[in-house]
Structure formats: C-alpha cells, structure tokens
Amino acid sequence: MALLPGIVMSFIGQIPLLALFDVMAVLCFAFITLHPTLSLYARKVILVICLYLLSIILLIYLGSFGPGLLYLLALTIFISLIFPIKFAFWSVAGNLVICILFSLLIQFSLIDASIIQHYTLGSWIAVSSNLVILSAVIVASIHLLFNGLQTTIVKEFSLQNQLKEESQALERMLQKMEAKNAELEQFAYIASHDLQEPLATILSVVALLDKQYKEKLDVNALRYLGFLSQASSRMQALITGLLEYSRIGKETELELVDCNQLLHQVLTECAEQIKENNAAISSDFLPTFYAYRAELKLLFENLLSNALKFRKSELSPQITVKATEEQDKYLFLVRDNGIGIEKKFIQKIFIIFQQLHAKSKYAGIGIGLAQCKKIAELHGGKIWVDSIPKQGSTFYFTISKDFTSYGNTIKANTAH
C-alpha cells in the first residue's frame, strides 16, 4: 500500500518507467503473499531481490533525495534479522558495489537522468559512504547483540534445566528421606510395642521368683535377681520412652494454645516437685498461637523438669520463662541457675538416650531433650542451649508462625 502513492506521483512527475517498476513491485509482493506453495525461504529471497531492484531504480531516478539509500539500509537490517550473519555482510558489500556503480554513472554520465545532473562525484561519495559505513556498523552491532542475547538465552536455558534437575533430585531425596523417616518411626513403634510383652513377662517371673523362692535362694542368687529386675525395668523405661518419642506429632491437630495457661497447667502438675526443691519459677506474658498442645506441653515439662533435676545442692532453683515475638517466629527461653553443661556436650544432649551423668546420681533415660528437639522441629523451629558450667543454662527454642507444611499428615483446626 505504501507504493501506491509513489505510483501516482511517478505518473504525475512523468516518470513512467519508475511507475512501471512500482507496479511490478506491488505485483511481486502480492505474489509472495498469496502463493500457497511457495516456501518461506523462497519468499524471503524474492522479497530481497525485489527490494534491491526497487532501491536501484529509486537511486537512478531520485538519487539521494529519494528513499533509495534508506531502502538499502533497511534491506541490510532486514537481511541481518532473517538470514545468517554472513548474508548480512554480503549485503553490506552489495551496498558498496551499488554505490560504486552509481558513482560511475555520475562520473561518466552514462544515463540521461535529470537527477544525476544535480550531483558531483564528491557529494555522492560523501552521502553514499555514510550509508556503507552505517550498514557495516549496524550489521556488526546486530551480530554482537544477537550473539550476546543467544549466549544469555542459552545460559539461562541451561541454568533453568540445571535448576529443574537439581530441584527434581532434591524432591526425590526428600521423598526418600520422608519414606525412610516414616519407616524408621514405624519400626521404632512396632519394635517398642512388641518388646513390651516379653519384658513384662520377665519382670513378672522375677517378681514371682523373689516372692516364692526368696527364702530358698542364697545371697548371690538374690543379687542376680535384683540385677535382672533393674535391667528389665530400665529396658522397659527405654522402650516406653522410644514409643513415646515415635508418637510425637502423630494423630494430633493444631489448635489455638495460650502458652500462659499451658505453663500454669505444667506448674500445677509439677507442684510437688517444685515444692520439694524449694524452686522459684517466674514468667513473662507468653503469646497465644496455633500449635500442637500436647507436644508443646511436653516440651515445657521436659525443660522445667531438667531445670529442677540438675540443680545445685546448695542453691534453690531459680527458673525464668520468657518469650519474644519476632517477624516470622516466636522465641522462647527457659533459664536456670543449675549445674550447667560443659561446651563439649552441648550438641550431645539432644541425641536420644544420651546421658551426661551417672544413672545413680540423676534418674532418667536421656530422652527428654531429644523429645524437645523433635517437638521444636515439628513446629518449624529449632532448639539450642547456652550454658556455663556451675552457673546455669538457658535453653532457647523457636516456634514458626507458618509451620503447617512441617506436619504432612496433620490438619490444622482453625475453628475459634
């Protein structure tokens, strides 16, 4: 459509040959557009040839006053975009050849065109050289630009593939870990549950022997029965602890928990132990949030029980419970003035069945802090301790504000 005004003006300006070429260009464009079986590559080649012919005709009849030079520049850009880069450099060479040929036409007056008479060779070279230089610069720039874009796109595509592969590998690892954890928990539950019965039988037999044959057994036999009874009782305690550990987070629901009420309930249940140790327990105002009530209660029970158990003999326990709200979590601390923990044992205390002291001195099976760690992680948080031997310990634990994804089989109860 843009050529139609040119056709009209060619007839008005009495340049019929230019009008004829414009009509032929329109027909050529129509052929390229409407031919049903013409390949894309053929369409591009025919279009470039037509535009080159049209550019030459415009140069001959209109010189640099017309759009001929602009057509050549536009053709170079067009070829850079639709053909490999080597064809674009050939286009620059073609522009140079056309400008040289046109210089010869001007110099030797080889054609009888009025427009040529307005040019000198110097003025034409000045104008056309700009075209050639600009064409070369544009082609080189487009080449560098497209190479940079291609490199960037390839790298981005490669990184996306790598990220996708790593994400899939991580997902597979997480699935395997979840399956292994579920398998281990199931094994712990089954093993501890199934071992309860034979242990109960052993304890019953020991009690029966002690009751019916106590007078007939010598001192050594009675001592051995005592060892057997103690070992069986401890094994039963370990199995019970393992069973309780495996049940943490099972078959429970999120509910709105007021930590002030929860702590008050724990202190009420531990009132006798608190009184026996002449302990003083203080707390700041604690937050309210959605959590697993039974598990959170067990966490407080274990930390307070440890603070009471590992006291200094010469001092009454002084225990402080505090909480602060942060951007994405709640941070709790339980501080005591007990015997403290040596630095080398800081990490060991959170491992199940690990005990730092002789069983005869401090009762227990070494599962309380392991339970605390599992409960904190169940709530999307973590637990750690700062301690100075003979001065006391401060246990910290966090509760995430958004931790529902940490309980795969647990549904949140959002009813108020």
Count every helix, treating DSSP H or I runs of 4 or more residues as helices: 11
Distance between the termini: 71 Å
Strand order of the largest sheet: 2-4-5-7-6
Poorly predicted runs are 404-416
Helix content: 55-70%
- Rg is 45 Å
The figure for the number of domains is 3
Shape: rod-shaped
Oligomeric state, counting identical vs distinct chains: single chain
Q: Report on the biggest sheet.
A: 5 strands, mixed
Mean pLDDT over the full residue set: 78
Total number of strands: 7
Order of helices and strands, N to C?
HHHHHHHEHHEEHEEHEE
Which class best fits the helix and strand makeup?
A: alpha+beta
| Residue fraction in strands | 5-15%
Structure description:
This is histidine kinase. Pfam families: HATPase_c, HisKA, MASE11. The chain folds into three domains: 156 residues; 72 residues; 152 residues, Heat Shock Protein 90 (2-Layer Sandwich), CATH 3.30.565.10. By secondary structure, the chain is α+β, with helices and mostly antiparallel strands. The C terminus is likely disordered. The radius of gyration is 45 Å and the shape is rod-shaped. The strands form two sheets. It has a five-stranded mixed β-sheet. A two-stranded antiparallel sheet has the order 1-3. The two termini are 71 Å apart. It contains eleven helices and seven strands.
